[in-house]
Amino acid sequence: MKSLIIYSSKKGTGEKIANYIKDSVDTEIQIEKIKKGLEINQNDYENIILISSVYAGTMNKEFIKFSENLLLNKNSEQKIYFLVVSGFEEKFQEFVENNIRNNLDKIDMIEYAGYCYDFNKMNFFEKFIIKKVAKVNESVENIRKDNIEKVIKKII
Ligand SMILES: Cc1cc2nc3c(=O)[nH]c(=O)nc-3n(C[C@H](O)[C@H](O)[C@H](O)COP(=O)(O)O)c2cc1C
Fold first, then answer.
1. Where is the Flavodoxin domain (predicted)?
2. Which of 3, 97, 112, 152 is least buried, going by the fewest C-beta atoms within 10 A?
């Protein structure tokens, strides 16, 4: 079973999760960071895992475009899983619904993947926002391996 991970990440959490999945499985798996002009042959993969972080409620525009195109062209043997990297667990479904506008029903599973707040990677403004909104004052990692495992189980 060949699998593909497409991730969007600004500060490394999404990348960490993508690598965690790759290291957890023996099956063939390819990882691609989203970028403009990224080309893949969708029909080569039985499983596609989409990983996106959320900033100010939004996901990366290229990632959204790419994901919507994958969903549009999904074939009947293919599974598409979505992992949301976000500070607010209670909103992860909402973040997907607000960002991915078309063919949402074609996503086979949406899970919450947790978050990191790395103060070493934030600018002054970002630190200010996070202290205020998330009420976090220092670096913290809360990657939800329990939920990520649910997706891993599907691709092995
Ligand atoms: C400036 C800033 C804004 C953020 N805005 C949101 C948000 O609106 N909703 C949310 O759930 N998480 C938000 N987060 C949390 C990020 O999604 C979280 O830090 C995540 O781990 C980042 O993933 P990445 O390292 O892959 O980019 C924000 C984080 C930062 C630093």
1. 4-138
2. 97
Residue 8's contacts (CB-CB under 8 Å, 6 or more residues apart) are 14, 33, 34, 51, 52, 53, 59, 60, 62, 63
Q: How far is the CA of 53 from the centre of ligand 1 (A)?
A: 6
User: Residues with beta carbon inside 6 Å of ligand 1?
Assistant: 9-14, 53-57, 85-88, 91, 115-117, 122, 126, 129-130
Report which protein residue has its CA nearest ligand 1's atom 28.
55
pTM: 0.98
